[in-house]
Task: inverse folding
């Protein structure tokens, strides 16, 4: 009998309490009256996971039985956020757990706060991966997420005198109740060494990689439960360990130092998440991480997930490896090595299969964000893989020269190998050559990929290129984060929207219903009070409970233009101070910022310091009577997002057009009834198209206008000189008004804006301030604003990651849902 102790059906308060106390006593070894908050949280988490176990086991059993096509989502990042709430929702246990804990005198909400979120990602790309696996489970699609179990996730941000300080994220300090380690299934991965020619017994010659060191990958499995289905997929994150046997051998040869070194080498690999999300640093350890998790994942799928006797020629029927950006692209030569070197396949057979199993998602348009690996580094770490890449390139260039005879310039541009400034592998080219599909993450982004960044490839293989607009999971970002609005929506249209977000369109007529608008407003107001409470408790920040909440939350990067929003705030402050703007006419507003800067990105850190400096000055200025507040809570993360987004009125999506691939925060805000002020960039384009011009504040240059201005020569100095408000705002910063009279402190930020202003913040300033004036006027008409807010919700169903997954299935994977019976 394979039935776990708690069957899925057995949902009663009594059985839940029994399980919970068992976990407390036998799992934690404590009595209820002596249990710490962590004990209770752990016992609760383990109780909840029991209820999901039947579905997980069933899913695994069926995977063997059905041999259905599986999506393997390969991603260096999964930014999961807290697990308890999601698992309570999918197991349908929230009500029962609350009542059970109530009876025991425990508050469920207190225990929720104990969980430290797994922050195993930087931002958009990592969070997208988490939304996608949630949606695939909900849609009953077989999927395995493969990634890295970083011991330290994205750093914990603190502010010291307004400057960012990074602290280690010790998310595992108290252990995680959600992971299932399987050291007995460890996979071995090689690094370094050399390649030899060998001839085996049958006289067949092959290349044999002899690594200098080996590392074990220990899989940690996590449940990925679907909502409203009993499917529970798996997220498998790899943790690096030194192999005992290897060390023993070295020890016996007297190499104590060597053995310890290898131990350190091995365990460093999954130690820490790299916090850069836009300019890859080309660090050796990063490449080790990439190869480590990819090699573990491929070996795992070929040897453990597929049946022993599986004919790998049929691999394309069983799997698509979806490459989340170029970070896992080393999987391409790794699969070739598995087939050619380890299984003796011909190059042609192996390449034929390889080209049918990989698909590549690109997440950027910034040239400096495209990963390249110097061949010196790659060849030292993965000598055989470099050979394979060279061979792939050789054959590819041959094909190119056939197609474009005499066009050596084109051949050089398209080559997988760059020659300058150093010889290096262009990972995006490798992914595009090997992948059977390449997709961008929003309509505009995919267009620009096709017509600009990868235009040569799109010309050669037009059918390879496609778009899948990103989405977000409505479970976490609506149902869980905004329970009150969810209740109202469900009362109006039933609860079908949670699994089919297009049903939100049925709310449209209610935008005209005054009573519905009032209730919708009341909920937003209550969410603001709750957000204010959280800010007070979490950060000691005091904000008005009823001011407009104007939020810009995303990684700090020049292209996203946090400086543009800051210039608007400074300009308001300056105009109020000068008497140009009467204080009574200004709507009370809280400007919320949340942003981490990559530790090595000096200018980004200076921008953070400037935002904090402006914030302190404004917040301390009694003459403003509290009408303007700047709230910049440190360490913005998924947990805080779930509190902020439901409270927001205005969503700032103000990147320079043509730079933000998609954005996904924009979708979360719209779905929670915030209006967007934004440029015609990324998924903003699609949001505006769907919600309507009247319900969106568009400003700034369009992408073609940006390109024109770039071509004709852009002078930020000239813009500064010609706009008195802009000049006054910048001069106020330069005067030392926000730095106790120090005129040098914020100089680098000002110099970057007046010097090059690479992302044309000054060029869009006037248009932005005008749009903010429209915001201000519209907000005063609260009935009109509420109508627009409701229409944003009603018309944003498209941005469910469930829809994204259906698009991936149709356009790329050819995978299908596999329903299982309860
Ligand atoms: C690469 C190499 C070495 C170290 C780190 C990296 C790296 C890590 C994360 C590079 C980029 C990373 O993330 C980029 C990212 O988050 N892109 C965003 O992806 C979102 C989902 O598609 C989009 O919505 C955003 O527009 C895009 O900026």
Result:
């Amino acid at each position: 009998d394979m039935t776990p102790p708690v069957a899925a059906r057995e949902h009663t308060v009594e059985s839940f309490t029994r399980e919970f106390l068992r976990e407390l006593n036998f799992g934690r070894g404590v009595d209820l009256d002596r249990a710490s908050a962590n004990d209770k949280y752990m016992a609760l988490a383990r109780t909840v996971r029991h209820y999901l176990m039947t579905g997980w086991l069933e899913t695994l059993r069926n995977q063997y039985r059905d041999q259905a096509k599986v999506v393997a989502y390969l991603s260096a990042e999964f930014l999961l956020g807290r697990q308890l709430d999601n698992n309570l929702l999918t197991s349908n246990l929230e009500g029962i757990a609350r009542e059970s804990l109530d009876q025991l005198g425990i508050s469920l909400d207190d225990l929720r706060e104990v969980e430290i979120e797994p922050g195993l990602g930087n931002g958009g790309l990592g969070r997208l991966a988490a939304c996608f696996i949630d949606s695939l489970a909900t849609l009953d699609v077989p999927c395995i997420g493969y990634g890295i179990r970083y011991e330290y996730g994205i750093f914990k941000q603190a502010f010291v005198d307004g400057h960012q300080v990074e602290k280690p994220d010790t998310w595992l300090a108290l252990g995680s109740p959600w992971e299932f380690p399987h050291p007995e299934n460890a996979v071995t991965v090689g690094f370094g060494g050399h390649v030899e020619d060998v001839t085996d017994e049958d006289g067949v010659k092959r290349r044999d990689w002899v690594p200098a060191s080996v590392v074990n990958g220990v899989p940690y499995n996590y449940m990925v439960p679907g909502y409203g289905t009993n499917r529970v997929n798996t997220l498998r994150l790899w943790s690096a360990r030194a192999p005992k046997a290897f060390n023993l051998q070295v020890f016996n040869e007297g190499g104590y130092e060597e053995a310890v070194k290898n131990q350190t080498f091995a365990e460093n690999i999954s130690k820490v998440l790299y916090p850069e999300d836009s300019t890859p640093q080309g660090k050796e350890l990063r490449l080790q991480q990439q190869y480590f998790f990819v090699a573990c994942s491929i070996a795992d799928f070929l040897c453990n997930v597929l049946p022993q006797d599986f004919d790998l020629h049929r691999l394309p029927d069983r799997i698509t490896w979806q490459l989340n950006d170029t970070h896992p692209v080393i999987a391409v030569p790794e699969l070739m090595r598995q087939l050619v070197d380890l299984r003796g396949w011909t190059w042609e057979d192996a390449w034929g299969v390889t080209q049918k199993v990989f698909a590549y998602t690109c997440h950027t348009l910034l040239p400096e964000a495209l990963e390249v690996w110097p061949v010196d580094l790659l060849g030292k770490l993965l000598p055989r893989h470099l050979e394979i890449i060279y061979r792939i390139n050789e054959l590819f260039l041959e094909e190119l020269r056939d197609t474009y005879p005499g066009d050596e310039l084109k051949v050089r541009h398209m080559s997988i190998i760059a020659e300058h400034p150093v010889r290096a592998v262009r990972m995006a080219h490798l992914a595009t050559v090997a992948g059977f599909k390449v997709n961008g993450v929003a309509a505009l982004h995919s267009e620009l990929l096709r017509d600009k960044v990868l235009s040569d490839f799109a010309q050669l293989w037009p059918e390879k290129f496609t778009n899948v607009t990103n989405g977000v999971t409505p479970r976490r970002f609506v149902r869980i984060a905004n329970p009150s609005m969810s209740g109202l929506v469900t009362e109006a249209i039933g609860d079908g929207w949670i699994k089919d977000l297009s049903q939100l369109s049925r709310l449209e007529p209610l935008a005209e219903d005054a009573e519905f608008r009032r209730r919708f407003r009341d909920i937003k107001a209550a969410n603001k009070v709750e957000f204010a409470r959280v800010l007070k408790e979490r950060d000691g920040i005091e904000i008005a409970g009823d001011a407009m909440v104007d939020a810009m939350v995303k990684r700090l990067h020049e292209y996203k233009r946090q400086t543009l929003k800051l210039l608007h705030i400074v300009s308001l402050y300056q105009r109020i101070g000068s008497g140009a703007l009467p204080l009574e006419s200004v709507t009370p507003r809280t400007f919320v910022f949340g942003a981490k800067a990559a530790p090595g990105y000096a200018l980004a850190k200076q921008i953070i310091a400037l935002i904090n400096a402006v914030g302190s000055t404004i917040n301390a200025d009694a003459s403003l009577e509290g009408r303007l507040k700047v709230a910049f809570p440190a360490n913005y993360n998924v947990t805080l997002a779930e509190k902020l987004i439901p409270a927001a009125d205005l969503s700032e999506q103000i990147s320079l057009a043509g730079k933000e691939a998609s954005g996904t925060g924009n979708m979360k805000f719209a779905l929670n009834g915030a209006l967007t002020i934004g440029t015609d960039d990324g998924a903003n384009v699609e949001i505006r198209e769907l919600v309507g011009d009247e319900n969106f504040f568009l400003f700034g240059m369009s992408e073609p206008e940006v390109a024109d201005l770039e071509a004709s020569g852009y002078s930020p100095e000239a813009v500064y000189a010609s706009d008195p408000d802009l000049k006054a705002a910048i001069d106020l910063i330069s005067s030392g008004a926000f730095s106790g009279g120090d005129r040098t402190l914020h100089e680098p930020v000002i110099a970057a804006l007046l010097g090059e202003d690479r992302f044309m913040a000054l060029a869009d300033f006037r248009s932005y301030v005008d749009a903010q004036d429209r915001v201000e006027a519209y907000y005063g008409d609260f009935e009109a604003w509420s109508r627009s807010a409701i229409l944003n919700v009603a018309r944003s169903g498209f941005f469910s990651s469930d829809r994204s997954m259906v698009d991936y299935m149709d356009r790329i994977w050819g995978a299908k849902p596999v329903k299982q019976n309860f």
